[in-house]
Amino acid sequence: METGRQGDFLIMRFSDGEDLLEGMKQALKANEIDAGIVLGGVGMLKNPGLSFYVGGGKYDPIALTGEVELCALNGNIATVDGEIFVHAHATVGRSNGEAWAGHLSGGKVHMTAEIAVMALHKKMVREFDGKTGLRTLRFTQSGGETA
Amino acid sequence: METGRQGDFLIMRFSDGEDLLEGMKQALKANEIDAGIVLGGVGMLKNPGLSFYVGGGKYDPIALTGEVELCALNGNIATVDGEIFVHAHATVGRSNGEAWAGHLSGGKVHMTAEIAVMALHKKMVREFDGKTGLRTLRFTQSGGETA
Amino acid sequence: METGRQGDFLIMRFSDGEDLLEGMKQALKANEIDAGIVLGGVGMLKNPGLSFYVGGGKYDPIALTGEVELCALNGNIATVDGEIFVHAHATVGRSNGEAWAGHLSGGKVHMTAEIAVMALHKKMVREFDGKTGLRTLRFTQSGGETA
């Protein structure tokens, strides 16, 4: 992977075969970014690890294999127990144009992928929430409840 | 909903059952943001109100019910007659991975949703355009016609 | 097209019938932006030119015609041989809600489209890579190899 950085903005360019989420985590660590926004991602993935949240902390894997275009990547960067965690949802396109989408649990880059993230300096953490079974995003300096 | 803010960047974390567009509007109001860019959104929605524009000011509702992963949220924030208006298009994924997409007319959060927006200080307004039947985005200090 | 700019952030509002990628290129040129991030896009397209990369520099066109909602636009702006190049992947929704996605090779705006980009001041270039057949994104001032 190669990265280009300008202040709070970081672009990562992946090479064929690299693990997308693992690579993002490494680049974020190297750039000392532990909170941020995933601004977008394009490129290709092979056997993208899409999944669907069914509750109780469980994600059902989505049966999608082969090479796909990565067409949108949304999400954010926070920490779980002090460790960088990338929460991302992906939209991918198959060779016939059909789009699939889900929570991104894994997957390797095919050919190349270009990911843009933005660092935040206010910390965000994920804490277990018994009601949803999820590690819910929390703001250590909250803007307060607005609703 | 909880929000975390850093300068022009605002992250909203919704709880189960909250109305997404209404909640965004409330958080924007509380944060005095009336122009901006929707940078992305992830989480889940229940009975997402997707629709398709057919002209003449009419959106046809898309028949999609149940719980879906919110995989991409694009759009912007402007005012219509002085009132904050969020224009967003959503891409969602069903439990089988199938993606659906459209103009977001409504819908409640399922489990949680995390939305990132960026405030702009130059105002943007929406004004009715007879040709398309839409409230077209206008820049009060335009960068000028480039084409 | 009309544009609104605030510092490094540029919003383009397209009118019916305008070419999306060509229009973006013109607006970027007029705004002297030759590196950046595509933050998102919403609106509608007619006969969107989606395609799928099959290797060896070849994209297979995806057979999708008609009017669709533009629901997500991800990508970036770099130069190829000194010329501005927009690399974007699009997710679109059909009238029945079905999503399609792919590399965006062309397509005209239907009704309107609103695109947000962010300028970067560090240059990014695309250089031919024999291994993938692609013009790979390179950072002229690299953040270095992190993996």
In words, what does this structure look like?
Three copies of one chain form a homotrimer. The first copy, chain A, has 147 residues and is mostly beta strands. Chain A has a single domain, classed as 2-Layer Sandwich (60s Ribosomal Protein L30, Chain: A), CATH 3.30.1330.80. The first copy, chain A, is 7% helix and 64% strand. Chain A has one helix at 20-30, and strands at 2-6, 9-15, 36-55, 58-61, 67-80, 83-93, 99-119, 124-129, 134-139. The longest helix of chain A has 11 residues, at 20-30. Chains A and B meet through strand 3, strand 5, strand 6, strand 7 and strand 9 of A and strand 1, strand 2, helix 1, strand 3 and strand 5 of B.
Task: Spell out the blueprint of helices and strands.
Three copies of one chain form a homotrimer.
Chain A: E1 2-6, E2 9-15, H1 20-30, E3 36-55, E4 58-61, E5 67-80, E6 83-93, E7 99-119, E8 124-129, E9 134-139
Antiparallel strand pairs in A: 1-2, 2-7, 3-4, 3-5, 3-7, 5-6, 6-7, 8-9
